[in-house]
Write a structure and sequence with these properties.
alpha+beta; VOC_core (chains A, B); EC 5.1.99.1 (chains A, B); homodimer; 2,3-Dihydroxybiphenyl 1,2-Dioxygenase, domain 1; methylmalonyl-CoA epimerase activity (chains A, B); 36% strand; globular
Chain lengths: 134, 134
């Protein structure tokens, strides 16, 4: 069911500093920062040959990553995003397997304009999983 | 400098249950479990079209992931592994950039038989990074 690892997301307290770290110390290619006000984050993508790392800093008062950063002030691995071909079929399969989908179970429009769902970390080895339909 | 994302590692309390979760709920292909006594872990790889997820459970009394699992009993994202072409050149570049390499700075033989180094999480946004020469 799951396909490519679309990205690994790292929550960071300072996006410019994080981008500079990946660019200067790790010699990686980092794209321009983009504000995503509807998602409460500013992001920049590290482009790797086979996947991407999404660096995310909080944006606005109610950022969904604020609580994570208060627990992990230096930043930390936040979620994995796997691609699926049909997100509603994936959801139905997951629910039948006893896994929990966050929210009301209806796909939302994700940061890349495509349908996404998040799965409960307690059902997936303590890791938050995003599914993105591609 | 960094190349492909070789794998994302997830520390898990029960490898068989974790492998079944990825296989059954997420419909992924999971390889056979392998004991790596020299590294204090048992692992199984989830094969994705573009990368891999390494599921790791502790093996033996002094497993390097035991402390992580005592803080995160359900499991959690443990590290990212990036490929580099020349691990000593990568190390020298990192040290010049002010980043810390764990241990004595000499590459060790990693879980896949290739030279590896680990970088200090405090220098990389709270994420443990493994570099593997390929």
């Amino acid at each position: 069911m799951i396909g490519r690892l679309n990205h690994v997301a790292i929550a960071v307290p300072d996006l410019a500093a994080a981008a500079a770290r990946y660019r200067d110390a790790l010699g990686a290619s980092v794209g321009e920062a983009q504000a995503l006000p509807a998602h409460g984050v500013r992001v920049a993508f590290v482009d790797l040959p086979n996947s991407r790392v999404e660096l995310m800093e909080p944006l606005g008062e109610d950022s969904p990553i604020a609580a994570f950063l208060s627990r992990n002030p230096a930043g930390g691995l936040h979620h994995l995003c796997y691609e699926v071909e049909d997100i509603r079929a994936a959801r139905d399969h997951l629910l039948a397997a006893g896994a929990r989908v966050l929210g009301d179970g209806e796909p939302k429009t994700g940061a890349h304009g495509r349908p996404v769902l998040f799965l409960h970390p307690k059902d997936f080895l303590g890791t938050l999983i995003e599914l993105e339909e591609v």
